[in-house]
Amino acid sequence: EPEVTQTPSHQVTQMGQEVILRCVPISNHLYFYWYRQILGQKVEFLVSFYNNEISEKSEIFDDQFSVERPDGSNFTLKIRSTKLEDSAMYFCASRRGSSGVGGYTFGSGTRLTVV
Amino acid sequence: TQLLEQSPQFLSIQEGENLTVYCNSSSVFSSLQWYRQEPGEGPVLLVTVVTGGEVKKLKRLTFQFGDARKDSSLHITAAQPGDTGLYLCAGERNTDKLIFGTGTRLQVFP
């Protein structure tokens, strides 16, 4: 069964450092997403991406965050200057159709720890 | 704020028992999805419901979308230890994002 692949599975970084989280969505999917889950809390939407541009973003997704699809397969989330409160599980997701058409496939996540 | 409240938050039952998890909101959703999440893993889609009153079955799991599309339920018949996990509802409102519920952690003891 097709999977969304995320790397690395764990990342420890010092506060103020830049991190790039990588995702390979399912190949025939057109819509890409990042969500995060702080330990013990709900899964929260960060950003959606379609046709090489951001289609929607949450208030969490401030100027410190950016997304990119540098080639035909990878989808990355960059945090420019990490803060302690950025520590969370970050999930990439993709789906073939838009709203109301099918569900999302989530990756296994990257656990980011900012120290 | 579009909140999806799930109840109960925690549920511990014996193998063979039935259970129902509820997902409630004051907002109308265009579709609602149920996911199961294992520790250290991403949510895995179980079902999507889109029509008010819709009922879907997946083996021993029965999902219902409320008539007004503001709430949903997940019923498990004859629970098994393999059903243990975190169950999440998540709704869409004709935008390109999911609003996740607060989650129900289920433990089924043999």
Strand content of chain B: over 45%
- Count of DSSP-assigned helices of chain B: 0
Q: Spans of chain B with pLDDT under 50 lasting ≥5 residues?
A: none
CA(first)-CA(last) distance of chain B: 40 Å
Tell me roughly what share of residues is in helical segments of chain A: under 10%
Largest pleated sheet of chain A: 7 strands, mixed
Q: Which descriptor suits the 3D outline of chain A? A: globular
The multimeric state of the shown protein is heterodimer
DSSP E strands of chain B, number: 11
Structural class of chain B: mainly beta
Structural class determined from secondary elements of chain A? mainly beta
What overall geometry of chain B do the principal axes of the alpha carbons give? globular
Order of helices and strands of chain A: EEEEEEEEEEE
Gyration radius of chain B, in Å: 13 Å
Word description of this protein:
Chain A is built from no helices and 11 strands. Chain A has strands spanning 5-7, 10-13, 19-24, 31-37, 43-50, 53-57, 65-68, 75-79, 88-95, 105-106, 110-114. In chain A, 33% of the residues are buried. The mean pLDDT of chain A is 93. In chain B, 0% of the residues lie in helices and 53% in strands. In chain B, 36% of the residues are buried. In chain B, strands 2, 4, 5, 9, 10 and 11 form a 6-stranded mixed β-sheet that branches. The A-B interface holds A 4, 31, 33, 35, 42-45, 48, 50, 55-56, 58, 91, 93, 98-100, 102-109, 111 and B 30-31, 33, 35, 40-45, 48, 50, 88, 90, 92, 94-103.
